[in-house]
Amino acid sequence: MTERENFIRARDNETDDRYLGTRWVRFHHFDAVEKTENNVRVEARKHDPLADGTKGRSYSGEWLFVDYNATDEYAPLRDEPDLFVKFASLADNDPGTTDGRYDIMLEWIKKYGVLGLYPAGNFGPDLRSEREESLFLFWHEVGRAARCMALYKAATGPPGLLQRSGAPGKTLAEKRKWAETTLFDEVGSTLRRECFPKLFDLYSQVREDSGETTDVGLGWGFRSLLGAMYLQMAWRITSRRCAAPGCNNIIGLDKRSDAETCHRNCKERRRYHRNKEAAKLSATSHEATAPLN
């Protein structure tokens, strides 16, 4: 099973499709508005296509109401269910140079939109920007997302992977506990800052007989694209995982509620390992109770 399939299954296990419609805007063009040796800040400015640049600037005023720089809006939780994985994987192709990083960042934000971080000089909860991106902060968040993926694999993977992860601790249990706690702190802090519970009017209609709304549901909203991606990671963490040795796939919602494995092959492998362990315990018990000659 691919990681994309795992994230889709996790999302479908943890929430309803009706709650996935919160939208985020994408833009055609970004202008560099500030450059330093190690950072570039870009902005998707509004452009008036009716302005005449040859005979003085004659504004139509239409640009005040229509943003011609906006490509479209999309629902990242519904349309890009594995966006967190795609974002974290940028770390694997980090060129390590300002120009190289800038090109990757620009391609990303044109395709998916800016992360929605604080614009320069503003740090209030309502001052996030849907039009600006900072090269330094973008790659800082890439590194943090990649670290979360590594912590998740260490916390849920086989012992060998946990040993190689560099997690502190004398025992495997201590190492796994550290990886889990660190991961939960990272994901949890982002959820608290960037996401919020949200009431959804599912039909936006009123019954003619009583005047009551037809249905309302409680889901999640996000203040930034970064928040949407960390919701995806949170669903991956909390969803049911296969109990077969060596498998960390998500058990789909289509499986029975008491299913412990993601596939019949995993079910057989788990039964094999259980029988093997039982036989080993039985042999040990038999040796311990065997009479001495």
Task: Give a short summary of the structure.
This protein is of the alpha+beta class and 293 residues long. Helices cover 44% and strands 12% of the residues.
Task: Give the helix/strand layout.
Layout lengths: L2 H12 L9 E4 L3 E5 L4 E4 L26 E5 L1 H4 L3 H6 L9 H15 L19 E3 H22 L2 H6 L7 H23 E7 L14 E7 L2 H14 L25 H26 L4
Main sheet: strand order = 2-3-5
- The overall number of domains is 2
User: Structural class, from helix and strand content?
Assistant: alpha+beta
Distance between the ends: 54 Å
The biggest sheet amounts to: 3 strands, antiparallel
| Helix-strand string | HEEEEHHHEHHHEEHH
Indicate the overall shape: globular
Number of strand segments: 7
Q: Specify the number of helices.
A: 9
- Low-confidence sequence ranges: none
Mean pLDDT: 83
Share of β-strand residues = 5-15%
Q: Which value, in Å, is the CA radius of gyration?
A: 25 Å
What percent of residues adopt helix (DSSP H or I)?
A: 40-55%
What does this structure look like?
The mean pLDDT is 83. Helix 5 crosses helix 7 and helix 7 packs antiparallel against helix 8 (225-238). This protein folds into 2 domains: 3-260, no CATH class; 263-293, no CATH class. It is globular, with a radius of gyration of 25 Å. Strands 2-3-5 form a 3-stranded antiparallel β-sheet. The chain has a two-stranded antiparallel ribbon with strand order 1-4. The protein is built from 9 helices and 7 strands; from the N terminus they run H-E-E-E-E-H-H-H-E-H-H-H-E-E-H-H. It is of the alpha+beta class. It has helices at residues 3-14, 76-79, 83-88, 98-112, 135-156, 159-164, 172-194, 225-238, 264-289; strands at residues 24-27, 31-35, 40-43, 70-74, 132-134, 195-201, 216-222. It starts with a helix and ends with a helix.
